[in-house]
Every structure is written in structure tokens, then in C-alpha cells.
Amino acid sequence: MAETITLADLKSAFSTYIGTNQKDILRLLTQPTVSETFMTTVASQDLVYRAAKALIDDLVQGFQKAWTPKGTAKFTPISIVQRRHKIDLAFYPDEIMDSWLGFLGDEATDRKAWPISKYIIEQLILPKVLENRELKLVGRGAYASPVDGTAQAVGLSMDGFLTILTAKKAAGTSLINFITLSVLTEANIFDQVELFAKSISEIYINLSMNIYISRAWYAAYHRKRRDLHGQDTNYTGAKDLIEGTNLILVPLPSMAASNIIFATPKENFIRLMNRNNGASNITVESVDRQIKVFADWYESVGFGIEEAVFASVPIITGSPYQDQDPPDAPVVGTHIAAATQIIWKWQDVEGATGYKWGTINNNANATDMETAITHTETGLTADTVYTRYAWAYNVYGNSIALTMTQSTAHAT
């Protein structure tokens, strides 16, 4: 008989676990994401935070008795609005039992070390919250006011830094240092990153500062660097330092599928938490034979001072990411069938840099066809129906699969 757990038992276990570990749970709930580790955390009780530290002009001058002030503070603070987030999770106790028991077996641990309450919070809830924050909020978030009584889609509870940069560029009045680059390609990515670095003010280029980029363009940069300089005697594949500067190239998961490149001192890259209610609450209730977990916290990201931000933001019509998506799926072509082989064909796709072909619907195991739009499969059986798959891809990812079906010819 399958093992079960009662609602009362699970409610009791949760209450005990949260009651004794609430501080640690809240800390884990709001721990910095990968991207936020490159930011400076600021705790403020203000509903709208504005940087107070200025960039100071030159101060030193020749001595004279008269008071001749010289330094002037120049800065344009960017407002960062405190945003509140929450999770509302409901589940039936028995739905969790199998996964919990499987986890105990896989980890070769016992129930005392991992009670089901700890497992649900630390293995199911918190990792998903961290993933949502990193991939859908920190970079790409686009704030929209919640609709009363309606669960809001992930990604709408705050503005991410990519959204902020895009909006500032579109406004046309920002003092952010926008740098114009060519449309990024595999062929020019190395030169464009170096051009971006050279375009940063000398005041900042001598600082230890990161240049942030998507993981896909980071990989493309290193491939091109290898192709250009791989034969150099001092070449090292792991080098992220831009030549002649103190600037380091850093990929951020939150920038996936983005053509934006930006740099700013860590002190100016802000992760804003509420001083009073950074992670304000986590509770559990039992209602209608379900366990319900509630949690809420404050968190926002942004930049402190406009003049200390350097960014290349492509001008895009409509959605700021509409030209940065994986390509559409290929359209099926006219296959050529013989008794023991099929020449599979599909049509070229705009925006694709290559194609994959596979015998199962899993592009991870598919054959990379590079730019070819045909594939010859041999060793087949006559009078047999075969199903195969094709994908288009570019630097932003793979398309959905094209399903192709074709029969082999009669044996002669």
C-alpha cells in the first residue's frame, strides 16, 4: 500500500519547521540570484529610492587664501521603486509523497535530516522562486499593476535592468552613455565588444568594472577570440579581461536572448531591499484538504546614477526582445524516397544560422546540419513509414520541432 500523510500531520510539520527556521527560510527566499551577486545590495525604507552619492569633479587646485570652491557634484539619480512580490502555493499532501520518497532514496539520506516540510520548501519552492527571479524578473521583468483577484504572470512584479535600459534608450532624454554598435553577429562579436570597451570614458575604463553580456554572446566572443588569436603564444581560453583595460566580460543568465551590452561599477548596479520588510513573511495554512504556503518580500533592481552607466541597446520596434528570439520552425520540403533511403528536405528559415535533424523529438541529441537544409538517411526498410524531426537555430536557441513523415518506396 502506498505511503500517505494526513493533512493534519503535514500542517503540524510545516508549522514546527517554519517556526524554528523562519529566519533561514526568509534568507534563502531572498538570497541574491546569479545576476544579483554582481550588484550592491541597498536596504532602504523609502518607497522610491534615489542614489545620494555624486560623481565629484576635479578638486585639487593651487593654494590661495581666498575661498574658491571648485568641485561640483554631477549626477542624475535614477528612481528605483520598491516592489513587493509574493508566492501563493497550494497542493494536496499525497501529491508530494512520491517525489519526497524518491528524493530520500536518491540522496541516500533519512527522514530526520529531510522531513517532508523541509523538502517542500528547500527542494521544491525555493529553487523555483530563485529561477523565476533570475530568468524572468531581475533582467526581463516589466512591471504591471496586479489585477484584483487574478494571479499575475511571472515577470510582471518589477522592472528588470534590461527593461530599464531599453526604456531609457527609447525615451531619448537619459544621460546614460549609450554606445552605438553594429548588429551583433558571430563574425563581428569580438570586435564589437572591444569597440564597446574603447567607448567607455577613460575615467571608468581604468576601474575594475564588468561588461555584462548574454551567455550566448559571451560564448560567441570566446569562439571568435580563439579563431583570431588561438595561435598566439600567450593565448589562454579562459581570459575574460578585455585587452588594454581593467574591464572583465561577464555573462549573466538574466540576459538570455538579449543583444544588450552594458557596464557600470558594482556600486552603481543596485539590488534594492526593504530595510523593514526585506522578506516579511512566510506562513502555512490547511484549507479544503490542501496545504497552502504564502510568502512575500520586497525586491527591486536598477542603477544609481545615469552618468555611470554605459550601454549598447539595439533600437527595436515593439517588444524589446522581439528580434532576439529563436527562429521559427522550418517548413517541410519535398522529400525524395527510395526503397532504402530518404532524402529529407526542409525550407530555409529567416534568422536561422543553422539546422538540426533527428530521429527522435529531442534536439539535444540531434545531428547539427550547419546550414544544410537536406539530410540523406540510408539503411532503411522498404515500404515503411518513417518520422523524423528538424529544427532551426540561432544564437538565441532552437526552434520548435518540424515533424516530417515519409514512406520508403517499394522494393524492386
Structural notes for this entry:
With 412 residues, this protein is of the alpha+beta class. The chain has seven helices and 23 strands. The strands form seven sheets. Strands 7-15-10-8-9 form a five-stranded mixed β-sheet. Strands 18, 19, 21, 22 and 23 form a five-stranded antiparallel β-sheet that branches. The chain is flat.
At a glance:
By secondary structure, this protein is an alpha+beta fold. It has two domains: 1-57 and 76-143 and 157-325; 336-407, Immunoglobulins (Immunoglobulin-like, Sandwich), CATH 2.60.40.10.
Protein topology:
Layout lengths: L6 H23 L10 E5 L3 E2 L5 E2 L16 E2 L5 E2 L2 E8 L1 H15 L8 H23 L22 H11 L5 E2 L10 H10 L3 H4 L3 E6 H15 L17 E6 L8 E4 L4 E6 L4 E9 L2 E9 L1 E4 L6 E3 L23 E2 L4 E4 L8 E5 L8 E4 L3 E4 L7 E10 L2 E2 L3 E6 L5
Parallel strand pairs: 1-11, 7-15, 8-9
Antiparallel strand pairs: 2-5, 3-4, 6-13, 8-10, 10-15, 11-14, 12-13, 16-17, 17-20, 18-19, 18-21, 21-22, 21-23
Helix pairs in contact: 1-3
Keywords:
five-stranded antiparallel beta sheet, Immunoglobulin-like, five-stranded mixed beta sheet, 7 helices, alpha+beta, single chain, 412 residues, 26% strand
